[in-house]
Amino acid sequence: GRLNADNARFLLLxxxxxxxxxxxxxxxxxxxxxxxxxxxxxxxERLENFTRRHNLSRTELRLFLREYEEASVAGIRVxxxxxxxxxxxxxxxxxxxxxxxxxxxxxxxxxxxxIFLIFYGLIGCAGTILFFNLFLxxxxxxxxxxxxxxxxxxxxxxxxxxHNGRRGSGTSxxxxxxxxxxxxxxxxxxxxxxxxxxSCCASAMYTPIEGWSYFDSLYFCFVAFxxxxxxxxxxxxxxxxxxxxxxxxxxxxxxxxxxxxxxxxFNVISIIIKQSINWILKKLDCKCxxxxxxxxxxxxxxxxxPGNVRSRRNISIETDIVNESDTDGRRLSGEMISMKDxxxxxxxxxxxxxxxxxxxxxxxxxxxxxxxxxNGFSGGIGALAxxxxxxxxxxxxx
Length: 398
Prior knowledge:
single chain; potassium channel; 71% helix
């Protein structure tokens, strides 16, 4: 039933996700592994040259570099950057927490900060996800309102609706939009266009201010807006910018709008994935049902059938009816059948009926003659007996 369908959908989605991850791992490994090996070889060569030039032990140098890595995690960099935990830095941090971006360039180092982050993130992330869902609902309502308004404008131009018609208010207006919900593909197209426009505009801002290439800016926009948040590129981390206040405000607005659009786009794409999974399961279920019906049809070939040659018929998967004989198939399809085929396919039941009619008419059980034994239901009374005797005469004459 319903539970089995949900389980099948869950298992199929899990298998598809695993296959998707395996394919992604293979592609990224093939693309990035050679570059990683080259970078490691260059680093080992530089490290060897540095230790030889300055007469240092490689062990001492590695210990020093490991200490710098720990300092880097705490927010210390070689270049001058703004303080991580002043108010503006902390506000940027909580923004990455509640939006689930989590760049990783700023993390709490104290036990109290880590404990507070657990409870703060639990409520903040839940509230922000609710905000994103409500944003998607409002977006769909706006699209429906625009679609309805455009349709009404076209009707007014044609003179079907009066130009001074008043709109309903409150609940009636919301109910009137129920039939104007846009298609999921239409919403996906709008969100894709909106996300692309926001990313292009944000990249045009990041490129000159942060000093990134335009492609790196687009890459940062996707990583940030999709809440993946690798942290290899993070905006607004320098101490000073030109028009610093305006830039930080624009950075906040772009990230907020981008996260809303991309998160909503993910929700819409998940609906399309679910529809695709349902379609795959339906196709698999139809094939299984078709095979089962064929097996059942083959197993029923030993029942009493007309003597003529049966023709194979395609079984429709739209119905649950299994044609047990060619006579039944022709009856369901509306074709004419001969009386001989009808009598032959119902031989047993007609024989019992003829026997009961004969006993009822004569008041005693009839003795079956050799002809009766041979035919099975000859020697009866009524129209069926007359037709049966006529068929026997015809077969004898032949």
